[in-house]
Design a protein that fits this description.
two-stranded antiparallel ribbon; 2 strands; Four Helix Bundle (Hemerythrin (Met), subunit A); mainly alpha; 7 helices; 168 residues
């Protein structure tokens, strides 16, 4: 199955080549950690327009999506045959205690996730990265999930910089 069969991920997947994926992942995780750890506390409750997420909610979305993407990748790599459900990003953003979580704590949690992600990906064989599984009723591979994770997070880091005025 081609990654092009995943229409809502096309932009994320097209932005990240398979070539040099491990190095790209490592650089991305370093960059994302630096950006998230540098967000000033006085900007976390800012939203650039009514009805848009705050910086804190967007940080939470990045963190939650990271965990979901990498969990799917690892489980499929290990041979999971059950289908993973999709998730409603807006419901997730609304149904977590984001107001009680500080920006430094969110940045630290992302750094922790990044360290674990590096190991999980490093431990995957090429055969495991190519193994197929089902997520959100689509056939996916761990390699797609890794590329989508990078592309998705890069998109949101760009949004933080361009629309929220934070980041590098």
């Amino acid at each position: 199955m081609s990654a092009s069969a995943l229409p809502h991920w096309t932009n994320y997947l097209d932005a990240v080549s398979v070539d040099g994926l491990d190095e790209r992942l490592s650089k991305h995780l370093d960059q994302a950690s630096a950006i998230l750890s540098g967000i000033p506390a006085d900007r976390v409750d800012y939203a650039y327009a009514p009805g848009k997420w705050t910086v804190r909610q967007l940080m939470g979305h990045i963190l939650m999506s990271h965990r979901i993407f990498i969990t799917r990748a690892v489980c499929i790599a290990r041979g999971e045959e059950k289908s993973f459900p999709g998730y409603d990003e807006n419901a997730y953003a609304e149904n977590w205690p984001h107001q009680s979580i500080g920006v430094k704590e969110l940045a630290s949690a992302y750094a922790d996730e990044s360290r674990a992600t590096r190991n999980w990906i490093r431990w995957m064989t090429p055969e495991e990265r190519a193994r197929e599984g089902v997520a959100n009723n689509l056939i996916v591979r761990p390699e797609y999930m890794i590329r989508a994770l990078i592309g998705h997070e890069q998109h949101h880091l760009n949004v933080l910089r361009e629309r929220y005025g934070v980041g590098l």
